[in-house]
Design brief:
The chain is an alpha+beta fold. Helices cover about 30% and strands about 25% of the residues. The chain has helices at about 35-45, 80-90, 95, 140-150, 160, 170-175, 180-190, 200-225, 260-280, 300-315, and strands at about 1-10, 15-20, 25-30, 70-75, 105-110, 120-125, 130, 155-160, 165-170, 230-235, 240-245, 255, 285-290, 315-320, 335-340, 345-350. The protein is globular, with a radius of gyration of 22 Å. About 35% of the residues are buried.
């Protein structure tokens, strides 16, 4: 399923706005406080089973303020594989009669939390359209299966949520989001079961850590071209904390927290990108990034844009930036200008270059 359109009502500074998505890579630019981050955050709430709408998200000029909720709608195009899966979990004559229809879409709309506050409308935009959930008795079972097997993975990151920091095995086995990137790093390195880190055999742990290091260094050498002398070591510090130690051509070793913010961001982003790719299978991934790589050197920004291009080959990426080195220059349809006025609120301009390049 590919996201092709969003429509937002009363989300923060957005009163009502639509955005057509015609490419797999979308870059939102504009001044501070214009609403770029609000657009990204609103899209993240299309992940309707993993996010919670809150009443304080609602636009203060809304008639539903202060106790209502915003309305968030997304239109997804169904590829053939997704359509075949949908038919298996949703047996209805309407779908069978239209089994050869092309350009099928599902519109997801939510106006609160829980199944009673969402709708799933199947349409080809011309001949038919109906809310799937009105024809389902076991709604909860259907929603869970649809979400796990068909619906895209929507990953939303703010800068601080990406960064890796030292963690105990107990931290890694918990649910604290601060350590999520470290968990994913270990998975990418070959540790699919974090309980293996609890092993009391020092020889086993030493060998296991070494294998993870070797795999991570192969990955880093392939993707990080600014300094190919860098090598990664997995070390235990302060008694029981696992940490990444980085060694470069100077011969010195540094904890990852001591490396530059630019390197930390790029490496952490790389880990999350590879993890998403490995877990999504043939489902689409929609990656949402708010101000990625703000501390990157221009060469680092260039590497990050290459990563964005790789993601856009198979998935979708939508991000905000103030950096001229991270704006998309080779596709005008991929650049979106966001502005805000006291009366209209946040508005989107898809053609900022027609008059003057805002």
């Amino acid at each position: 399923m590919k996201l092709t359109k969003i429509e937002l009502f009363d989300f923060k500074s957005i009163k009502h706005e639509k955005l057509e998505i015609n490419t797999n890579q979308l870059c939102l630019v504009g001044k501070n406080e214009c609403g770029k981050s609000s657009i990204i955050q609103a899209i993240s709430h299309l992940s309707f089973l993993d996010t919670e709408l809150q009443s304080n998200f609602i636009n203060k000029s809304s008639a539903n303020y202060p106790n209502g909720f915003p309305i968030i709608s997304g239109v997804f195009q169904l590829e053939e594989k997704s359509f075949e899966r949908l038919k298996k979990i949703f047996d209805t004559k309407v779908i069978e009669e239209n089994k050869d229809a092309t350009d099928l879409y599902i519109q997801i709309k939510r106006w609160g939390n829980g199944i009673s506050n969402i709708s799933l409308t199947l349409t080809d935009k011309e001949t038919f359209g109906f809310d799937i959930l009105t024809k389902i008795q076991q709604k909860s079972q259907f929603i869970n299966t649809f979400y796990e097997e068909i619906y895209p993975n929507i990953e939303y990151y703010e800068n601080e949520e990406l960064l890796i920091e030292a963690a105990t095995v107990k931290d890694l086995l918990g649910n604290d989001k601060r350590f999520e990137t470290f968990r994913r790093l270990l998975y990418i390195g070959g540790c699919e079961d974090l309980n293996l880190l609890n092993n009391s055999d020092d020889n086993f742990l030493s060998t296991f850590h070494s294998k993870i290091e070797d795999r991570l260094n192969i990955i880093l050498k392939k993707h990080y071209k600014q300094d190919e002398s860098i090598k990664i070591n997995l070390r235990t510090i302060k008694g029981d904390k696992l940490s990444l130690v980085i060694k470069d051509s100077s011969g010195e070793s540094f904890a990852i927290e001591e490396r530059s913010p630019g390197f930390r961001y790029y490496f952490s982003f790389l880990i999350n990108k590879l993890w998403s790719k490995s877990k999504s299978g043939d489902k689409n991934t929609i990656l949402l990034l708010d101000e990625p790589g703000g501390n990157l050197h221009p060469n680092g920004a260039k590497d990050l844009l290459k990563s964005f291009d790789e993601i856009a080959e198979t998935s979708q990426i939508i991000y905000t930036t103030h950096s001229p080195f991270l704006t998309i220059r080779n596709c005008a349809d991929s650049l979106v200008f966001v502005d805000k006025s006291p009366i209209k609120g946040t508005k989107i301009n898809r053609k900022p270059y027609l008059n003057k390049y805002q």
